[in-house]
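Could someone model NAP with this protein?
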Amino acid sequence: MSGTGPSESTEVETPDARLEDDRTFDAIVVGAGITGLHQLYRLQEAGLKVRLLDAGSGVGGVWYWNRYPGARFDAESYSYGYFFSEELRNEWTWTEEYAGQPEIERYLNFAADRLGLRPNIQLNTRVASATFDENEHVWIVTTEAGEVFRTTFFITAVGILSAPQFPRTPGLDQYSGEWYHTALWPKEEVSFAGKRVAVIGTGSSGVQIIPFVAEDAEHLFVFQRTPNWVTPINNFAITAERMAEIRATSEAIYQACLTSPSGSPHSPMNMLSTDVTPEERDAQFERLYQAPGLTMALGNFRDISRNQSANASLNAFLANKIRSRVNDPEVAEKLIPTDHGFGQKRPPLENGYFEVFNQPNVTLVSTVDEPMTSFTEKGIQTTEQEYELDMIVFATGFEAVTGSITRMNITGKGGQPLDEYWLDGPRTYLGLQSANFPNLFYVGGPQSAAGTIPRITETQVDWVTECILYVLENGYSEVTTTTAAEDEWNDHVNEGIKGTLQETASSWAFGSNVEGRRRAYLLYNGGQPQYRQKIAEAKDAGYAGFVFNK
Ligand code: NAP
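Reply:
Sure, complex below.
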């Protein structure tokens, strides 16, 4: 039976009987990152009995786990935080345009306290499985510690870049030195001083940590498989005056985020690169190179991300920048991407990255020229030689977008495991639900999220909250979607990436960074405003594409 339309009410009666059982919930949210905390806040505010589970010992999500040296925002600090709360906006002071991980973690702890979320957060709790009980219409959620919870609604807010992945190279168990993954970085200080260190991976995480390792290590070996188009972050401190201005213009900043495709204060220039002379075009590129953050990617000429030859002109400009910053011409050429153009993959931002390769204690090792064959007791064996190492840092990324969800071993109706259902790529309707997985919602999941994540997940959080209230108020036991609605959304998602320059890239957005994974587009390329419009339309049409059962 289809719903007839959303209700305006936000208060729901929670039966006393359920309150007495501390293992039974209206909703369980997984993930204490910026999205999960917001989802908890909304459900708590609506009067539901809700618990948030997180594997970490603190809140913060990716900003809890990725505590490696150099980890910082690539998005403007004040564009990433919560806008819904005036108190949070007025009480929090950002100190840098692109805040470092410790500051971001402090912000999310501040938000958890200020919003009164702690009583409903259970930390140190990793979900082991979630199985839908068709008779009771509840999810049975088990944890690795053996706890069992029952919940009507199960909401994943686990992030799209939070399931770390390692190379399939054998022998790590033989290696006797220290090793770390950037996304599982320990709280204790890790010293690189006087050590021979390898960093594997040159994506955003690798590019951020490498200058810090290079500063202290006796020798740093950078194991690079694919070079990236890396541009300067040009970070700067936020003064008291500027913070006052940010607060005063907060609404305007928010509106700029809401109207931009990326959910950031940046929008592409209203101009093509061919509207100007090559000299004027290069002058714009130079301006963008000196500009802060992702301006180069998000505030460029409109055709840079769409037109091959426009894209090539920027690639030539950036290649020359690398040549001008790296002394050894051979090393410089190895650092210049040849398999993709700027913006086909999410570009990392750097601070002194290229100059690292001018240091005598740094060696660039191309795993294309000399593939890694095994980890050994002493280090890494390649086809050419053994590298003896005191430490290996894996900056090797994630089983992106779906990995964090499927690793929870979710089983829907008819004993259908979600990881099998998604074997050929994710299937969702509006990125919110999958057929035969009733009352399971994804916030910040596949086929929905791209750009500044909190700006899109806040819309999902509100949508999911209203949908849950609608289910409860109307006495339904289940909300789910249909395979027909999923097909329609899949077609729309795939249509949106077809013919773009990104479509041909080998990137985590297609899962192609994980060996053996089937290629499928995992995000949504229609831009945040269009996504927002799509989910609002479905709701306004009486939750079109969703099915409600008593
Ligand atoms: P990533 O972009 O996937 O980079 C992983 C790196 O490891 C790549 O260079 C990859 O090479 C390499 N790699 C993976 N497996 C390998 C293997 N078997 N052998 C050799 N090299 C291997 O991951 P990430 O750097 O963690 O970043 C992922 C995303 O997280 C970013 O794109 C960004 O969206 C987000 N992030 C954001 C921030 C920020 O906002 N400040 C910071 C960090 C990350 P290939 O390219 O050849 O696959």
